[in-house]
Amino acid sequence: MPSLQTAYGGLTEWETEMLVLIARRLSGAEIMERLVAAESMIRAQVSRVLVKPGLRGRTQAAVFAYEARLVRPNGR
User: Fold this and answer.
1) Is residue 41 over pLDDT 90?
2) What is the pTM of this model?
3) Hey, which of 17, 33, 42, 55 would disulfide with 60, CB 3.0 to 4.6 Å?
4) Where do the domains of the chain lie?
5) Residue 47 vs residues 6, 15, 25, 73: alpha-carbon distances, Å
6) Contact at 8 Å (CB) between 46 and 22?
C-alpha cells in the first residue's frame, strides 16, 4: 500500500489537508483560520501544494483532489 505522500503527489499529511481545503474553495484567510497558521506560512504552503504534484493553480488542485477522491462534489 503506498504511503500518503506517494499517493498524493509527494504531499505530506498537512499539505494534503490544505489541498482538501483548497478544493473546497476556501480562501487563504479561511485556510489560515482553520489550520491556525500565519498568513505567510499558508501562502508558502499553498505554493508547495501546487508545485509538488505539478499543478498550475487552485483549479487544477481542486480537480486533483476530486480525482484522488479526497473530496466529493458536494464538498465533503
Assistant:
1) no
2) 0.74
3) 55
4) 10-67
5) 18, 10, 15, 24
6) yes
